[in-house]
Amino acid sequence: MSVRRYALALCVAVVLVTSSAHADESEVLVPEGEPESILSEAHWSLMGNVSAVAFSPDGRLLASGGSDGLVRLWVVSTGRELRRLEGHTDAVSAVVFNQDGSTLASGGKDNTVRLWSVDTGRELHRLPGHSDLVRSLAFNPNGQFLASGSGDKTVRVWSVGNGTLQRTLNGPVDPVLSFTSKGKLLASSLRENTVRQWDVDTGQELPPSTSDAEASALRAVSRIVEVFPGGSPDVVSVYSPTEDVLASTANGNVIQVRDAASQRVLRELKGHTSPVETMAFSPDGRTLASGGGDNTVRVWDIATGYELRRMQGNLFPVWSVAFSPTGDALVSGGSDALVHVWDPATGLELNRLGAPGGPVRAVATSPDQRLLASGGDDGIISLWELKSGRQHLRLEGHTGPVYSVAFNAEGTQLVSGSADGTLRLWSTRTGKPLGAPVKEHEGPLRAVAFSPDGRTLASGGDDGSVVLYKLRSSREVYTEARPIGSNPDGSTLIGISPVLVEGQSVEPFRRVRYHRGPVRSLAFSRDGRFVASGGDDATVQLWGTQPNDQPRLLKGHAKGVWAVAFSPDQRFLASGGGDKQIVLWNVSTGQPVRALHGPIGWISSLAFSPGGHTLASGDDSGRILLWSLHQAPPLQGLLRGASQGWVSHLQGKSVLRSDDGGFLSHRLTDGALEAIAPARQGLPPRLSIVSAELRVPPGDFGEPGELILTVANAPDSGRAYWIQLEPVELPPGLMLFPASVPRLDAGTTVEIPVKLSYLRPDLAALPQAPQLRFKLTHAFGEETAFTSPLVLLSPELVLAKAPQLKDGTLTLTLRNTGSQSTGPLSVTGEFEWHGKQHTGPNQNINDLAPGEESSIAIPLSNEVLKLGQFDLALTVSYKKWPRTRSFIVPAVKIPIAYSLYIALALGALLLFGFVYYARVYRNPMVVHAARSPAALKHYPLAEMAAADQALRRAKRLDSTITAAGIPATRWQRALGGAKTPHDAATAFAEAIGGRLGASLGTNTWALSLPQLRLRFARDTAVVIIDGTRLESGDAERRMADVFQDGRGPSQVLVLDRTQAQNARQVLEGVPQVRCAVLSANRLRDLLLADEPVRLLETTISEQVSVSELSPYQVAGGVKMESFFFGREREVRAITDRSVRNFLVVGQRQMGKSSLLLAAFRRLQVRSDLDAHYVELADADLHRRLARERGQVPSDGSPLPPFVDVASGVPSRPRVWLIDEADDFISADAKAGYPLLQTMRALAEEGRAHFILAGFWDLYRAVVLDEKQPLRNFGEQLRLEPLDARSALALITDPMAALGLHWDTPSTTELLVEQAGRRANLIVLACKALVDSLPPDTHVLTRENLERALREDKDLRDQSRRWRGDHPLHRAVVRQALLLGKPTREEVRLALKARGADIRSSDFDEAMDHRELSYVLVPDGDGRLYCPVPLMQRYIESERSLEVGLTEDLEDLRRRGLAEVPRPA
């Protein structure tokens, strides 16, 4: 099956679903219908899968690279493939022409760069060296060097002449490369937030700042890195040809158009419904093309933000777009392996260039219609999500084209057959092969099929045989050597571990060879008893699956049989193939019942309706025919559609369509596509423009205008189709966006709105009498051109008066002589004399209306005033659009009064200059900082202000702090630390991300800290200590003012700026004071640090006991976001945009409260929800919710109705996170579920949603009680232990914040293993370690851990919870441990052998209780074990298992075995 047939099949599926829903929204182009002949050579536009495209400099050729590793050269004008450049062994990711178009460079996933001759197609050089995908290529201006950037973090520079490597530069990840006009190499990476540049000749990396004009591009890229913090790899950005406009998007649907110099957002382009994947500017920078995941290419007017054209109809995302050098053609490539050439002005497809990836030869949909599988010549099977069109998985393994694929009945497995002769079975969940490939055919394998029960496979191949296979589950155990530690001598200790691998084995059990040629199709009957096969020998073989069943040969076709299908009742078999007929066979007799003929092609697929009354056929032309099995003629139908329109044709009826000329087309002899016009009926149309009304004149900078044209079709004429307005002659900078009219009948008129956009070209004069000249076109021709007068609005700035110089100030007057307001203006004056330049201060003008003037006063420096004469260059920048207006005022003279005074002044100036130089430039601080910039970081806090002042005078501050690696903001913050106490407190709060509050006393302020990893109060205070030294009496008074007898903060931070630096020693002697003291040097380090919060945590942990700071807690849930580890999947599910009911089930202390609190923190910030967290202490949910809402009457009157308390409104529903819900569930069940029924109704109405968390009662209601309304109340989340990574983070991250570290990784792994990844046990163990650690110890050893596990009382108490609430709970655990990984049945039989014949329901419920408690859980084979070694250790240490089990059984007998109660 070709790509075109595959895409059309998907298109038909979409149209069949959507056409009825939108039938009234599309106007039929020709109401009376059209003949079938218009469909004979019809093409439908579909876009394609191309990873890289590039035009040659002259626009004549197009290069494309695809996933097949080929680079293709196309002639743009004809669409002819000129050359195919073969060499890459994997996908091509980048292509670029050199400046004269003679050489093409390509890079790919095979980590190589290749140079090609464009004239001959010969590979000039193969350039290996990269170790990762080559992502970017760039030729230098003279074409001598080529730069390549890769994901391996290197940029390599190659000689184009001999292909040798010139330089290897350490670059950023995934760099985007470009050369400046002077040959400097730029590399930017939004993934790493870096922009770097090199001198290619020397390989030297240049500093970020440069005096070259091309540095504007570097600065612009640097700013965009700042705009998108975090360096998302999904950022797409592109500069306009003039580099003054930047279009960018960060993993989103909206494109932002920015001024490249200031990064100010000028426009937002909205329209894409999925992330934008690619963008390109037209050569004149006026328009932008974009493509994305919504399968469209869009062309935008940059000035107005209007969407000019939308090219769509393809089914898959668009990955690349590019304009031709002249801007009259646009190419796009995407996931359907085609390159499309478009006219950006009309949106019509000019040409279509063949598929780089080869044809798709096999498709199949899963039974649940969720997935579609496709295979083709590249040997790769793709699984696609039908709903989104995105690729789900790639199944790689075949070494030849894939000819057939089929799903099993559950859709969990896929079988494939290939030209490599192998059959492969795949998991559709993981994309991994299930077992080894099976090769039972000689030659290609053409057909595969699953039996209905999924236990049997069939395959047919070119050898004419059909093979049946049995599917069997397989389990294999092998050993694997893994490092498990270190020997005393330092060598690695290796352990041998068993590894279990599960899969499916495919075992052939029967082979038949009934065909004399390739087998093309296979089908199982519904009961799996019969198999039908069709082949190239024009026969159908019908045979049973049992070994002794004899085949029946069904003859009736003249050519190969490519499709077979059983009717649902198995009475009939349908077959079709290359003879363009369908034959119905009687399965019982093997005789043909009837033959179906019609205007069909080669039959490629057949399917019966569920009732068996209708047969659907698909052929190579893309038609779908529906055949009624009770009448001779078929009900023939053709349906195709896309956003451009649709086509419908049913048997005996005319063709109906809704087409704007861009949907249905045919191919001309030169390969171009031309729209299929309706047939002309009678007279030709005669169109004329009755009136042209300019309702809104267009303004400069893209301010929209509107022209209304009234178009008439003469009464004595024919109908007109596809009426469009085409410009003939337009004023420069004007663009038209006319609406199109699909149809205009004779004698009728229509108003056509024409949107106008005007962007006056730079340096162009405003036309004095502008006019439009355009013509009307239609499907059958065009009309005489029409001219309409026009008004264009634009500002025009002039210097109204000569410059005036008075009192050292130069005054200039600007006047707007145009017809439009200027908007905000920025004015800069530059003075030049003797080759030197001086830029004056920037001036702003809010707006200049037409005819309005504004004066600008520019103060002149003494240096300028002493010149006597200078040239003035005045630059006015518009803020509406990146445009400037320049005025040159030559030879501005400054009057000089007395030459003698000037001479004296010059002498004084020289003397002053000498003294100034000695004091400023030879200042010891300046000299020292110049020699050792890094020393600035270690200056005393009090000396930083003097250093700042000295460096500023010498104009070396910026360069020095840059060389020292100190950002300017941090330097200013450090200076604030040495200023007034309030400045110091403010700088400290800003550095750590805190918030400074009200004053609490002398040099004391309230301070709200950010979330620390320590248990240190967030609401604290900061105290500034100044002076010579801190006296003990003063310390006591200051602390008393802060703590206020317990009413103030419990902990404070002290910034010691005294000369003696004795605050810490003095405060240690003040009783009942909890504080952390930052010395002046520590404060300086914090203000300059990259991570000041981490430095603050270190300071606190050095001075406060770790047991006081430890964040490890075991009750009430985790309330600190920074201490919440794991459970991200569950939190995301609960806080999804579409909030719904959830039931969270888990053992006590498994983390339910922490999970609900984490979800509550995220839901709480959403404005569209009203979220509440409540913890139930009893069964009265109604009263607890009313108390949360403040609706409990104080006078003891009845509570408000539950509905009023619990519900919100659909636009802002109330979300209740209800913890400890077990007692409520039990009580509501006894009352007949009144509240649960109400809660369900509120959720269905969208007024409230409920997340209930509990243990056994909730689990029993959800899983065990079939009558409980909770069975389908909401989605169930069953909590398991933490994943290994989160458990390890829980052990290490808080300890690091406390300044504690583990001796070896094996110690932390021991704790994870012993605790069974249960968060509560990990926290208890860590808490025990912290509490028992000596004060001066900072390393946690294995010995410390084992002692805590062995001796800690809280751990022992927690582990005793294994006992449960009933002796049966204990008995099943001890019996299971005695047996050593038994099954449930083995436990039951062992207890029965001991005389405990327990009811099955009681036994099963007790086992469920133990499994949910995470005491006994089954492995993959259903065998039970204790997953928490620490708990098992405590179980076995209480008493011997045998003795304990005997006591448990005695207890059971005393209670009565027949009356075992339900577990509580």
UniProtKB/TrEMBL annotation:
| Signal sequence coordinates | 1-23
Where are the coiled-coil regions? Answer: none
Q: Where is the Novel STAND NTPase domain?
A: 1121-1323
Alphabetically list the UniProt keywords: Membrane, Repeat, Signal, Transmembrane, Transmembrane helix, WD repeat
Q: Give the superkingdom in one word.
A: Bacteria
WD-type repeats, residues: 50-84, 85-126, 127-168, 177-208, 269-310, 311-352, 353-394, 395-436, 438-479, 512-543, 554-595, 596-637
Q: Which InterPro entries match?
A: nSTAND1 (IPR049052), P-loop_NTPase (IPR027417), WD40/YVTN_repeat-like_dom_sf (IPR015943), WD40_PAC1 (IPR020472), WD40_repeat_CS (IPR019775), WD40_repeat_dom_sf (IPR036322), WD40_rpt (IPR001680)
Q: Which PROSITE patterns match?
A: WD_REPEATS_1 (PS00678), WD_REPEATS_2 (PS50082), WD_REPEATS_REGION (PS50294)
Q: Where are the transmembrane segments?
A: 896-918
Claim: Signal is one of the keywords in the record: yes
For this entry, the protein name equals: Novel STAND NTPase 1 domain-containing protein
